[in-house]
Automatic annotation (TrEMBL):
It comes from Denitrificimonas caeni. Belongs to the shikimate dehydrogenase family. It comes from the Bacteria. This is Shikimate dehydrogenase (NADP(+)). Pfam families: SDH_C, Shikimate_DH, Shikimate_dh_N. The active site is at 64 (proton acceptor). Pathway: Metabolic intermediate biosynthesis; chorismate biosynthesis; chorismate from D-erythrose 4-phosphate and phosphoenolpyruvate: step 4/7. It catalyses: shikimate + NADP(+) = 3-dehydroshikimate + NADPH + H(+). Keywords: Amino-acid biosynthesis, Aromatic amino acid biosynthesis, NADP, Oxidoreductase. GO terms for cellular component: cytosol.
Length: 270
């Protein structure tokens, strides 16, 4: 039996155990996947204890940066994200750190037939969530990615860090009003039911795709706004959650699960 799990604090409500158990069932693999509550000041100890027998772990809030710091080897996308959401024990016992969040977003967009290449994209927010998606997003060759943030300096900093990977700019909310192809909400505003101060003209009716990296049972405030502006399609982050898990499952087992039926099962349970 191979042991997997997800570290976080809190962790009880994580959907990852269900997702990975469904992937295992689908793939015919015998594995265990449990929620792993680490103390806020004891993440490193909890990880070494787990990996005495464990094969791999997901890492969620608030430990992704600590997981980045303790990994012995890092993927390019994890190095860029400066955060790790997937740890894998290698044969020599060392820990490989990866970040599958951005691949999750990109795969969910592609599943929904959203073309990223040559598109103009606004990414709202400049925190850890946005940092995690930029490398995989830029790898799809968009026309332009503009990071929009209340605190413009943070957007400028991110744009500088990623500009070698593609055309990046940074701006404040009141600098922009021209319509774009894709708007991705990576702010934490949806958590508190807030809407970033967006100009209505950013959405071209029937054309612009809006993606909220958050998800909830009911349409998020950002997606409600997007629908009111006539967005061609609105998506929430549940698909990204399942796809980042699928990518982690692939990193661990070499088996790429089919995310679609698992997403359907999760949506039905919200
Ligand atoms: P996370 O790890 O989820 O990215 P974070 O690093 O705290 O969390 O970043 C939160 C992001 O959401 C920031 O970009 C924040 O903007 P500021 O940097 O200006 O604080 C953004 N954010 C949070 N609430 C917001 C709101 N109501 N409107 C617009 N942006 C908001």
């Amino acid at each position: 039996m191979n042991y997997y799990g997800v570290f976080g604090n809190p962790i009880a409500h994580s959907k990852s155990p269900l997702i990975h158990r469904l992937f295992a069932e689908q793939s015919g693999l015998q594995l265990s996947y449990e929620p792993l509550l680490a103390p806020l000041d004891g993440f490193t100890e909890a990880v070494s204890e787990f990996f005495r027998n464990g094969s791999g772990a997901n890492i969620t809030v608030p430990f992704k940066e600590q997981a980045f710091a303790l990994a012995d080897q890092l993927s390019e996308r994890a190095q860029r994200a400066k955060a790790v959401n997937t740890l894998k024990k290698l044969e020599d016992g060392s820990l490989f750190g990866d970040n599958t969040d951005g691949a999750g977003l990109v795969n969910d967009l592609l599943n929904n037939h959203v073309q990223i290449a040559n598109k103009s994209i606004l990414v709202l927010g400049a925190g850890g969530a946005v940092r995690g998606i930029l490398e995989p997003l830029l790898a799809q060759n968009p026309k332009e990615v503009c990071i929009v943030n209340r605190t413009v300096e943070k957007a400028e900093q991110l744009a500088r860090e990623f500009t070698d990977l593609g055309p990046m700019t940074a701006c404040g909310y009141d600098w922009i009003d021209a319509p774009v192809d894709i708007i991705i909400n990576g702010t934490s505003a949806s958590l508190s039911g807030d809407l970033p101060p967006l100009a209505n003209t950013l959405v071209k009716a029937g054309d612009t795709l809006c993606y909220d990296m958050m998800y909830s049972k009911h349409t998020t405030v950002f997606n409600q706004w997007a629908q009111q502006q006539g967005a061609a399609l609105t998506l929430d982050g549940l698909g990204m959650l399942v796809e980042q898990a699928a990518e982690a499952f692939y990193v661990w087992t070499g088996v790429r699960p089919n995310a679609a039926p698992v997403l359907q099962a999760l949506r039905a349970q919200l």
